[in-house]
Structure formats: C-alpha cells, structure tokens
Amino acid sequence: MQTDFDLFIIGGGINGCGIARDAAGRGLKVGLAEMNDLGSATSSASTKLFHGGLRYLEFFEFGLVRKALIEREVLLRAMPHISWPMRFVLPYHKDMRFEGDTPTSKLLSLFMPWMKGRRPAWLIRLGLFLYDNLGGRKILPGTWTVDLTKNPVGGPLKDKFKRAYEYSDCWIEDSRLVVLNARDAEVRGAKIMTRTKVISADRVENHWKIVLETDGKQTVYTARGLVNAGGPWVENIVRQVARQNTSEGVRLVRGSHIVTKKLFDHQKSYFFQGEDGRIIFAIPYETDFTLIGTTDAEHEDLSERPYATDEEQDYLCNFASQYFEKPVTRDDIVWTYSGVRPLYDDGAKSATAATRDYVLSLDDNGAPLLNIFGGKITTYRKLAENALKKLTPLLGGSEPWTAGVALPGGDFLVSRRDSLVADLQASYSFLTPFWALRLIRAYGTEAAQILGDAKSATDLGQDFGATLTEAEVKWLMGREYARTAEDVVWRRSKLGLRMTPDQTAALDAFMAA
What we know:
Layout: E1 5-10, H1 14-25, E2 30-33, E3 49-50, H2 62-78, E4 83-92, H3 103-111, H4 121-133, E5 144-147, E6 163-172, H5 174-187, E7 191-193, E8 196-204, E9 207-214, E10 217-228, H6 234-241, E11 250-261, E12 269-273, E13 279-285, E14 289-293, E15 297-298, H7 310-321, E16 333-344, E17 358-363, E18 369-374, H8 380-395, H9 417-427, H10 433-443, H11 447-451, E19 463-465, E20 468-469, H12 470-479, H13 485-492, H14 501-512
Parallel strand pairs: 1-2, 1-10, 2-7, 4-12, 10-18
Antiparallel strand pairs: 3-6, 4-6, 5-6, 8-9, 9-10, 11-14, 11-15, 11-16, 12-13, 13-14, 17-18, 19-20
C-alpha cells in the first residue's frame, strides 16, 4: 500500500524536530504533528546550555558526559548564531558538600569519613580535568584557576570566596533551535503541522493510520513508521493514542528558573554549589538580565502547567545569596519559567539522581513504533541519528548526514559572529548595537533577508517596541510557524522581557488580523 508518509512523528519538541530533519535529509517522506507551538513545553524551558553536565560525573555517568562533550563542539559549529562559547566560574569553599546519595559521595564517605560529605578541592579539579579531556575539546579553552581577590569575577561575590575554577561550556537559544530544525526539515521535504493534535494512531496491516485534529477538523494520514517524541506525554501517547502496552516510563521532574535584574557586569557565568549538595547556575541573560536555575522537583500531574512556585523562587534566591555579596530577593525577579523534564525512570531515589540519558524503545511487532524516553538538549542530534539507525533498516533511507551541517542562518565560522554584527550595522546604519546583535544571534546570515532594502526603521513597517518590527513578525509567521504574540515574544525571542502589555496586545491583534 502507498502511504502518505514513510515516517510520522508525534511531538514538536527538540527530539521530534531533530528526528524530522535527519529523516527528511535521508530521503524519507516525513510528517510531524505538534499539538501546540513548536518547543512550547520542555524544549523552551531549559537552562539554555549545550553542556556535558559536569555534575553528572558524580553519578558516574561518564558515557553520557563524554557523548555530550563531543557533541557540544559539533553543534557549536553548525549553529554559531544561536549558540556561543561561555566561560563558567566555579567558586570554591571548604563547606561545599555532595548530595548525599551520589555514588561519589558514598565512596568518599567510606574511604574518607572525616570529610563528612564535603567536596575536597582535589576532587573538583579531577572532575574538571575529566571534563576538559573526555570529549576531545578543540575550540573551547580548558580549565584554569582564578584568584577571586584580584579577578573582576570575584567582585560580586562574598569575601569568603578566595579562589575559583573557570571552565568552558556553550550557550544555546533552545526554542530557536527547535524552530530551525523544523524549518530545515521542511526545506528537505517534511510536512510540519503545528496546533495539530494526534487523536489516535492504529496499526492497520503493515502501516499506521493516524487521525489528527486541527481547529476542530479531523484529517487522516497513513505512515509506514511512527515515532513517539511526546516528551512528558510519551507514556500517555503509548497507552492512550497508540493503545500499546509498555513497562517503560518517564519520571516527570520540574525545573524552575528565575530571571532577575542584572546582578553583575561581566559576561561569564557562575556555577554555584550549595551546602545541600545541589548546584545552580547564574548566567548573563539577554544583555540586561541574569538567569538563575534550576530546581529539581517531582511533577506528578501533567494537566497542571508547570510554574516556579513561591518555594522554588525563594530557594533560588537564597541559594544565590549564599554567594553574592548583595542578597538576591524576590523584588529582583522580573520573570520566571518552568518546564517538566521527562527523565527515563531508572528507579533512582531522587529527581536529581535520575539519569539524563535517553532510551530509544523500538516496537517492531508490525509497523514500527519508536518511543523516545528521556534525553537532554545537548545530545538531541545524536538521539536523532540513533533513532534513524533503528528505523532505516525497516523504512529505508540514506546514511547519517547531520554532523557539521549548518542550520538555517548558521553558515559562518564561530569566530566571525562579531564581524557579522558589525557588517549588519554598517549596511543598516539605523540599527542600534543591541538591535544588530539581537538579529545576528537570532537569524545569523539570514538577518539581512529580513531587513531587505530598508533605508530606515520606518521602512520595516509597524513598530511593536523593543526593536520588533512588522518585517520581522512577517518573517516569523511566514518562515517560523509563529501564530501568536506569545510565540514571538517568549519563544522566537525573549522580547517579552522588554515589551509592555499594550505592545504585546497590539502584536497579537496584528497577527490575528
């Protein structure tokens, strides 16, 4: 039987869109349905880092860390507009402790009981040595020691912190990453359907019959294979949509973040270790703000939209205040966000200890069904590649191809980003430095296509505030699946931090017209 698609994907987060791009590039006919906006759940609520996961070394997750570290530079080269190198400062103090149930803490308690759960400096340095060398680092600089009494990064910190370690990781605009993968998948032939819910998926002979609903109207498609990339909803899709039994599941863990007024002037981030053994980051964010996160809390009810609770906000403020000379208070918070991470349920005692690695579960008893459990944003491309490794023997398709292939707008060297900003400002003299930097960080080499032959800001149409213009909004609607103001100001950008409610309402009215 001739089917509509070779492969149909449920879920428009980073895993679903990454698989769609990879599969379409191999010559498969691909369909994808996302019930809301692309990346509207977990994939836009991360800590925005491409990182190996330094703290996972304490759980002996060496394989996961190595994969992520190797992948970090592969991704950086493919998307230097939405990802860039970042240095992290890890202040050291003798009172730092392990979380009690990590394998490392148990070993240290056994062999060095006098440490009483404290992290010794030599162990942190060993971990950073492994972090520098596990992944074959080529672009990013290695770790060095910092004298906080002399280095500017020590200025915002309490005087008790005299020394720190500084290491490399990468920043990523997570929700833009999702959209650019979807765009590239569509360019390669995929059909991307947003605001489209999968009502049912049934095996019929040697294929899947899939019923979709968009704006109250139902459509039926057929596909030779099905991927369940539903993220937090992966179990619901297996049992209620595809009506299959499974013994595998996810552990739903809420990660909350706060965004505050700018807490320090430099462009380096902080990695803070708490006396309870947990860690948080304090990261320069959107030029004028600081991002602090994350928490790890069990989230039992998917029908309840995740949000940063009062307790979580207080926890993050108090945690950061253990390090910063000037206390961080709730009055400093300008925005909060929270997402549910669907971690593979490996039976760990705590949310923090649950594995961040992924499991790809293939049911090939008939037309194939691949269920995606867990994963992290840094390994999304490898997850997609491994998903296709399981599916291509059944569905066909060419060899792996995504390593090093740029996403839309990312076809330039990592070292050239600043010169791109300067070139854009030279070509469009009406751009402010902030505006030019924002456009390059969002669109890379495509920024000039948005601006076209404009000679002044008025040539870009209606001004919605905070450097957002009609020309950019039309690009986002026509090329990047944006339908509402929320899509634009909180996912395609973070201009919601700068726009007034009236400006956002005007944008919504324009987009709905």
